[in-house]
Amino acid sequence: MGEKELRRSLSVLPIGTVMKLTNLTARQIRYYEEQGLVLPKRNEGNRRMYSLNDIDRILEIKDYLSEGMNIADIQSVFAKREAKRKREQAALSKSISDDEARRLLHKEFLNLGGLAGNNNDPFNNRL
DNA sequence: TTTCTCACA
DNA sequence: TGTGAGGA
Q1: Which residue is nearest to the C1' sugar atom of B3, using CA?
Q2: Which domains does chain A have, with CATH numbers?
């Protein structure tokens, strides 16, 4: 996770700020949490603290609701998005592994050349 | 003052 | 989803 994403994930906004930013009532915001649509952190005093990502999430919920979707619909939308995120994350780590494998193979190639006393490694002067 | 949980003439 | 109680 990059620095920027980390900041967007920091839960620093109290519900009052979220109310102003989203134009929703505290009741509604808490209800969406009850339905598992948003998962704000809690501070020492049991107060809900929201991140910028939570704000985006809530605004998205608000839009979907105004478009006629119900809570269940929205839950499935987020569920599918999460599934996709996992798939892409898996693909990403696989590509990293492949890249790592390539480096190891190249390293082996260089070692083989050295063991055989081979002096015509084309990459010899570049690596 | 703000936010929390709980409950419903 | 609104609203009030009673507490932190």
Answers
A1: A47
A2: 3-69 (1.10.1660.10)
Which of A90-94, A102-106, A114-118 is the least confident region?
A114-118
pLDDT number for residue A46: 97
Residue A30, CA: closest nucleotide via C1'? B4
- A102 CA to B4 C1' in angstroms comes to 56
Cα–Cα dist A125/A57, whole Å: 52
Is A62 near strand B, with its CB below 7 A from some atom of it? Answer: no
Nearest-nucleotide field for A15 (CA, C1'): B3
A116-125 long-range contacts (CB < 8 A, ≥24 apart) are none
d(CA A97, CA A91): 10
A22-71 pLDDT, tens digit per residue, is 999 999 999 999 999 999 999 999 999 999 999 999 999 999 999 999 99
